[in-house]
From TrEMBL:
Name of the featured protein: Histone deacetylase domain-containing protein
Family matches, as CDD domains: HDAC_classIV
Alphabetical list of InterPro entries matching this protein: HDAC_classIV, HDACs, His_deacetylse_dom, His_deacetylse_dom_sf, Ureohydrolase_dom_sf
Taxonomic source organism: Porites lobata
Domain of life: Eukaryota
Record keywords: Hydrolase
Length: 376
């Protein structure tokens, strides 16, 4: 593994440290090199088959479009992003019940979760290959992004954010509980992480992770959502420690000051070791499901606020793209990521990464890396 900086730099300006993690028990934690961005993406994220995807308002190719925009801007290419592995049955069982995973063998159940009724008519092997497998790869991507954030200070999965799915129930286009899984994997494998904050800014209530982490003192959930749309899940609202409910049509002038006030407050009070940022873009004006009125510039400012607050406190953050149902959202997500780069909030350099060694709790087969950072 090559070092990200010149040795002389390291000797005079930086402190070198070594961190290790288990590759035997964390097969989703794939190795990366210093030339790669902690941006996770695979072409296999994209769902598209027989034209049925057009029956859902969700742009099921948006992940590929985000990547294409970033590539056109010369930020990344196929070699400089990190390609995740598919989450296996064994990985999924860390959070999911076997009954729930078995239920996905019924196409009718998957059709309900994806809200595309004709999917019920397809043989399950096609549903597995064309719908569920991309979601399992995105889930592997979220788990990987969480680990990359600990190493690099930040990471973005250009997918994931299935916040309506809990360990025992799917819904709202979410078949796997990737947020819960990403956090549980950190708790299990990385001993510098014992407190996590979920900042869920998708337009909908994140009732999946809320069901999973209800009464869990290790996890602080902040949820900012339109309270008058799906899922209106009252049973799990008690899991939200910072609950901010929005009215239909909330605009930038109301929304952004709320974030500027509550995010720093929550971070200073809870002091998490990691932030899972669910950055749904269905808050965008004109979205028929989110029913809010945030402008494209408002979304870019929103993401900037979250990253600024995380980075200045040196708290690792991983972002998931989650909901966002309009054709123009891919462009906005890419613009927002480019803005984070322009503002110096993200970079490819290890030297700009957070000072968090990655020490695994169960190192049966260890991989050793050298990394460097300023001002430990
Ligand atoms: Zn949503």
């Amino acid at each position: 593994m090559k070092c990200a900086c010149a040795l002389t730099d390291c000797v005079f300006n930086k402190i070198c440290f070594v961190f290790t993690y288990s590759t035997q028990q964390c097969h989703l934690y794939v190795e990366t090199n210093a030339n790669q961005w902690p941006i996770v993406y695979s072409d296999d994220y994209n769902i598209g088959f027989l034209g049925l995807e057009r029956l859902h308002p969700f742009d099921s190719g948006k992940w590929g479009k985000v990547f294409q925009h970033l590539k056109e801007a010369k930020m990344v290419n196929e070699d400089s992003v990190v390609v995740p592995r598919e989450a296996t049955q064994e990985d999924l069982l860390v959070v999911h019940t076997s009954d729930y995973l078995d239920s996905l063998r019924w196409s009718a159940n998957v059709a309900m979760i994806c809200e595309v009724p004709p999917v019920a008519l397809l043989p399950n092997f096609i549903v597995q290959r064309k719908v569920l497998k991309p979601m399992r790869i995105q889930t592997g991507g979220s788990i990987l992004a969480a680990k990359l954030a600990v190493e690099r200070g930040w990471a973005i999965n250009i997918g994931g954010g299935f916040h309506h799915c809990s360990g025992s129930k799917g819904g709202g286009f979410c078949a796997y509980a990737d947020i819960t899984l990403a956090i549980k994997f950190l708790f299990k494998h990385i001993d510098v992480v014992s407190k996590a904050m979920i900042i869920d800014l998708d337009a909908h209530q994140g009732n999946g992770h809320e069901a999973d982490f209800d009464k869990d003192e290790q996890v602080f959930i902040m949820d900012v959502y339109n309270a008058y749309i799906y899922p209106r899940d009252m049973k799990v609202k008690s899991a939200i420690k910072k609950n901010i409910e929005l009215w239909h049509g909330t605009d930038d002038k109301t929304y952004l000051p709320l974030l500027r006030k509550h995010i720093p407050e929550a971070l200073d009070n809870f002091k998490p070791d990691i932030i899972a940022y669910n950055a749904g873009t269905d808050v965008l004006e004109g979205d028929p499901l989110g029913n809010l009125s945030i402008t494209p510039q408002g979304i870019i400012e929103r993401d900037q606020i979250v990253f600024q607050e995380a980075r200045k406190r040196n708290i690792p953050i991983f972002m998931l793209t989650s909901g966002g149902y309009q054709r123009r959202t891919a462009r906005i997500i890419a613009d927002s990521i480019l803005n984070l780069q322009k503002e110096g909030l993200i970079s490819c350099n290890y030297s700009d990464s957070g000072p968090r060694g990655n020490r695994c709790k169960s190192d049966n087969k260890q991989t050793t890396y050298n990394t460097f950072h300023h001002n430990l």
